[in-house]
Amino acid sequence: MSNYIKHAEREFIALGYDLNQTKEDPNKWIMENIFELLEVFGKQGHSGSSAPYCINYFRKLAAFEPLCPLTGEDNEWNDVSEFGYTGTLQNKRCSTVFKNAADGAYDIQGKIFRDPNGCCWTGKDSHVPVEFPYTPKSEYIDRDPT
After folding, report:
1. Per the structure, how many domains does the chain have?
2. How far lies 98's CA from each of 30, 47, 75, 82, 93, in Å?
3. Domain that includes residue 37, residue range
4. Are residues 82 and 38 in the same domain?
């Protein structure tokens, strides 16, 4: 058993997971999926210098995030008019970035609002203008409890 799996097992136990559970549920599936990913990662033989690069790239790609700044070039856009957004384009490389004639380019998750209880949400006020090249980022805005 690899050190990755041993570490994962210790951490899942610390979270309260049952490593021997037989009931099919999301907790069991997540553990199995993580163990499978860690097995592959362990077999690839990464060193201390390559592992962080691989982990960073994998995290971004698995979350559908771009690896480098968006260019805004025509080949980066999909027309989303068929979904009721007439005249609006969505960026293929970052699904939170849109553009239209009225607003230009904007990121719908430029501002994420956080309530005192930790719950986060976005809305129309979350939109921030985008200039290319653009590296997507979100600013968290803590809301006043009053």
Report:
1. 2
2. 32, 39, 13, 15, 11
3. 3-62
4. no
